[in-house]
């Protein structure tokens, strides 16, 4: 029996030691062994370093092309660690101390690779951080975790075993394992060095993957012809892929410029009021639009060069330029239309005073200019409150004398043009709540829920927070904390949490991330979340939340599809009944505030 067990161990151990690592690890180990040869020449060292650098650069693209395959490769080390632990236990019982050493060294090699794989897997997920700085912070955290794990693994000096006389296969395997173990420690350090060196490229490559361009990058990087070019361009922060994308982007922006002018002309032709002015407006807009697209192209090229990351001061500068162009284009359109329209007014109506018209146009242009200046100052980081407060003593005196009238007038304008609320909306402002009856020139009237009528000056809305309950289309919040007794079993709670989440996901009246909603504003001219703009909430959270004084609390946070109060109440009631049933089925009881008193004997 012992002989059979021994043969099994020999065969099984041989299969473990014969197993190679991933292609990348194997190649890097070979480079490590070459670098540690005593007779290696300087030319060979340079060649090894070039091969190593190429391997690290290529593996980044390979990882992002097929993340799941890479993660599975490192999952295999768990099984190997488990198997080796069993073999070590058996060898210890059999008194095979050298075999135990051999297996312990190999076990630590697998532990190094497991820790390394976990770090790289987490880094792959961290690449989705919103900006490069956040990714760098997360990278540092993950590297520190890896180093802490490596310190626990590397707690024994095995180099003394390299001087043993290789009088048996077990000793030969032990020495090979020791060499490999120290090579893997060195490799782990090299990987961390390259992670920091290539962090910007990693972040950029992940953006390519996000934009479904990673296959193009992979194809270009895999061509041997481009490898020397990449090495030449690397010191300038470029590579063949980035240059190719820049050229494609420039061609796309140039084409888009032509399309934009063509679309603008067609849009104006379909707008009845602007139809007769379209050609003259487009002729005036050609030069500013051409230069605007050049600026856009430069902005996008810098963004691409910086690995899809914005540079704060450049972004602010480009925003100032865009505000200038927006102001200038608006000025051209308004003045072209006004100039042409004035001619028809002059010939068709003799009752309109030209002075009023001229002053009106000047006022409009002055307002456009002020808007442009304020936009530029805002994007430059200037505090607009300070600027507006220093407009002059005369303006201050005039504003102070008629501050309530002006405040209410501009409050009315703000309400009408900002679409904060409309008639019939349920709003809350300044501790007053009700349904909007009418938006007047000076005041807005609300009908409260106890049937009183409130008149609120429109100037109040400029300085107070307005909560509009009607500005939501999908999702009225259901939030509850369910307390179960401390005597509940962990498995029962875990099962109940899972079942509650499944129930909510399947509930026809609960909004989930899969809930379909037809957006009214598909094409928006501003970069905002469509969900937040139109009032769509689909968050669904069910988690064990906290250990409170008298209960173990389960947090349930979700939204009903309907925002109507009665529908929301019905949905919440149905959810509560189903939760009660799930708790009953899992032998869980609701907790209630309690106090235990112990009498000392």
From TrEMBL:
Residue ranges of every copy of the Mechanosensitive ion channel transmembrane helices 2/3 domain listed in the record: 362-403
Segments passing through the bilayer: 243-264, 285-305, 317-338, 359-378, 384-402
Highest taxon of source: Bacteria
Subcellular location: Cell membrane
PANTHER family, A to Z: LOW CONDUCTANCE MECHANOSENSITIVE CHANNEL YNAI, OW CONDUCTANCE MECHANOSENSITIVE CHANNEL
Domain Mechanosensitive ion channel MscS C-terminal: 478-590
Protein name: Mechanosensitive ion channel family protein
Membrane association type: Multi-pass membrane protein
GO cellular component: plasma membrane
Domain Mechanosensitive ion channel MscS: 404-471
């Amino acid at each position: 029996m012992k002989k059979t067990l021994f043969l099994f161990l020999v065969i099984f151990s041989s299969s473990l030691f014969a197993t190679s690592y991933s292609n990348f690890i194997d190649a890097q180990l070979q480079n490590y062994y070459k670098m540690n040869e005593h007779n290696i020449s300087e030319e060979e060292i340079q060649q090894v370093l070039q091969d190593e650098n190429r391997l690290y650069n290529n593996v980044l693209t390979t990882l992002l092309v097929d993340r799941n395959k890479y993660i599975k490769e490192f999952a295999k080390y768990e099984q190997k660690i488990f198997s080796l632990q069993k073999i070590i236990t058996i060898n210890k019982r059999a008194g095979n101390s050298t075999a135990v050493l051999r297996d312990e060294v190999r076990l630590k090699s697998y532990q190094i690779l497991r820790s390394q794989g976990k770090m790289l897997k987490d880094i792959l997920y961290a690449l989705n951080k919103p900006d490069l700085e956040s990714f760098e912070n997360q990278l540092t955290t993950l590297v520190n975790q890896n180093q802490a794990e490596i310190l626990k693994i590397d707690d024994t000096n095995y180099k003394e075993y390299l001087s043993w006389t290789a009088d048996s296969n077990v000793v030969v395997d032990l020495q090979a394992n020791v060499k490999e173990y120290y090579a893997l420690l060195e490799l782990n350090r090299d990987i961390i060095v390259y992670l920091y060196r290539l962090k910007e490229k990693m972040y950029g490559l992940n953006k390519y993957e996000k934009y479904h361009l990673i296959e193009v990058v992979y194809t270009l990087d895999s061509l041997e012809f481009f490898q020397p070019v990449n090495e030449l361009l690397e010191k300038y922060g470029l590579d063949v892929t980035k240059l190719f994308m820049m050229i494609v982007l420039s061609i796309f922006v140039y084409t888009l410029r032509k399309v934009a002018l063509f679309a603008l002309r067609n849009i104006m032709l379909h707008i009845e009021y602007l139809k007769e002015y379209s050609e003259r407006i487009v002729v005036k807009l050609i030069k500013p639009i051409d230069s605007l697209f050049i600026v856009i192209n430069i902005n996008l090229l810098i963004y691409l060069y910086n690995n899809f990351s914005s540079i704060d001061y450049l972004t602010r500068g480009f925003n100032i330029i865009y505000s200038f162009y927006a102001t200038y284009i608006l000025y051209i359109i308004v003045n072209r239309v006004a100039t042409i329209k004035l001619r028809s007014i002059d010939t068709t109506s003799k009752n309109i005073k030209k002075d009023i018209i001229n002053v009106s146009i000047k006022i409009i242009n002055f307002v456009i200019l002020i808007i442009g200046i304020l936009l530029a100052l805002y994007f430059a980081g200037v505090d607009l409150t300070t600027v507006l407060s220093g407009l002059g003593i005369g303006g201050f005196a005039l504003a102070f004398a008629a501050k309530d009238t002006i405040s209410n007038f501009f409050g009315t304008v703000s309400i009408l043009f900002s679409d904060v609320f409309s008639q019939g909306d349920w709003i809350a402002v300044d501790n007053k709540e009700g349904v909007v009856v009418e938006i007047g020139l000076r005041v807005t009237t609300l009908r409260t829920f106890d049937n009183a009528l409130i008149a609120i000056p429109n100037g109040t809305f400029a300085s107070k927070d307005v909560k509009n309950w009607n500005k939501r289309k999908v999702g009225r919040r259901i939030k509850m904390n369910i307390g179960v007794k401390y005597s509940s079993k962990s498995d029962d709670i875990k099962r109940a949490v899972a079942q509650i989440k499944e129930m909510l996901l399947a509930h026809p009246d609960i909004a989930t991330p899969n809930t379909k909603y037809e957006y009214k504003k598909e094409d928006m001219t501003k970069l905002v979340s469509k969900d937040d703009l139109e009032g769509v909430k689909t968050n669904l959270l069910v988690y064990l939340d906290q250990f409170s004084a008298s209960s173990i609390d389960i947090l349930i946070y979700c939204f009903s599809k309907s925002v109507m109060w009665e529908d929301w109440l019905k949905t919440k009631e149905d959810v509560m009944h189903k939760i009660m049933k799930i708790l009953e089925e899992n032998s869980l009881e609701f907790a209630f505030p309690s106090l235990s008193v112990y009498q000392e004997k």
